[in-house]
Amino acid sequence: MFNRRKREIYSLWIAFRFSRSKQKNTMISFISLSSIIGISLGVAIIIIGLSTMNGFKKELQTRILNVIPQVSISSLDNGGSINDWSKISDNLSNIPNVQSVTPSVNLFALLINGSKSKGVAIRGVDTNSFSTNIKKYIIGNDIQKFENNENDIIIGQGIAKKLNVKVGDELSVYLPGKDRQNINSYQIKTLKVSGLIKLSGEFDDLLAFIPLVDAQKYLDLNNAVNNIELKLKDPFEVEQVLKQVSEKLPTNQSWSLRSWKNQYGYFIKDINLVKTIMYIVMFLIIGVACFNITSTLMMSVKDREGDIAILKTMGASKALIYRIFIWYGFFSGLIGALFGSLVGVFIALNLTYITNFLQNITGVTLLNQSIYFIDFIPSQVDFYDVTLVSFTAIMLSLVSTFFPAKKASQVNPAIALSG
């Protein structure tokens, strides 16, 4: 008789012949095809969904967290001024997860162009570090023209549209007065738009930047600042950094610590929740498709009782028959998983272009930038997810073959051939 390796090859070959041969009952072929299509659709949809969630997470990290402070430190004393920010920055730089520490000045202002106005939060930033982080999001001008003592301002594209201004235009800017004790005090400056920032989301309507030196001058801060910003190597470990920061800050002042998660952490929670739901949906969709495999195999066993009986009379053991139908059902799961993976990966890699094309044709906006932080559908394929989804589909389809394969191995040759 056969050794083990030959038995496996023989069972695989017969299973392949069974899968290729024409069924006596056409309904079996239809259900078999339906199960393969069901697995393919399930795998493809889950891969696309998970890639979309990965895309949102990537855009949050590379687009948003590159612009907003990942950790923001402000003083609750001295009118908010931080005079010894340089020494504090040196201490905070020693925290392992801190990539950079930069001073900034935050202020609220009213931008006016003719009869149009817009309230914004302005950040006075170091021009060198700002140029490095934000350059790829600047449109309409060279970021290098964003210089100290030139009365420059960079505004979001949404702000520019609302105020009907372009690069090179001038704006009247109502700023807080130098007398910070008087809330009615204000000053008016004329600033030149030196660049427009496009993040493709709500931030385009909210953000404006001026050089740090100019902000200090407008608020009469001299060399002081009112905010210290941290950029982290791993922004998702921000809670641990906050604890370390609080231990290194001077104890003779009261401090306010804020992280990006205070304002935008719900995005990560939503992403993780949706991914969990998708995994559950994956099991349900693929599970239903695998139930069709069980039905197909049960019908195939009934349809091929004569073939099974002949194999048994030729000396085939129950174990061999069992393996034949295991392989037979395994093919359906394998084909469905592979085809679904290819389709899912292809669509996921081109999802942004596909959705933009559909938006242009239908005129329907899929993501409202006033609600979400971006106005397009992002996608990033994680091949770990692809492998996990495909492996799960194949394993579920394999499990669904056990009962029909056992039934096939128990066919009585005498009864089957006499019928």
Automatic annotation (TrEMBL):
Provide GO CC annotations from the record: plasma membrane protein complex
The keyword Ubl conjugation is assigned to this record: no
Subcellular location per UniProt equals:
Cell membrane
Q: Which GO terms describe its biological process?
A: lipoprotein localization to outer membrane; lipoprotein transport
Source domain of life: Bacteria
Lipoprotein found in the keyword field: yes
Q: Which InterPro entries match?
A: ABC3_permease_C (IPR003838), Lipoprotein-release_system (IPR051447), LolCE_TM (IPR011925), MacB_PCD (IPR025857)
List the membrane topology term(s).
Answer: Multi-pass membrane protein
The residues covered by the MacB-like periplasmic core domain are: 34-246
Pfam families attached to this UniProt entry: FtsX, MacB_PCD
List residues of the ABC3 transporter permease C-terminal domain: 280-413
Identify its protein family: Belongs to the ABC-4 integral membrane protein family. LolC/E subfamily.
Q: What name does the UniProt record give this protein?
A: Lipoprotein-releasing system transmembrane subunit LolE
Q: Which organism is it from?
A: Paraphotobacterium marinum
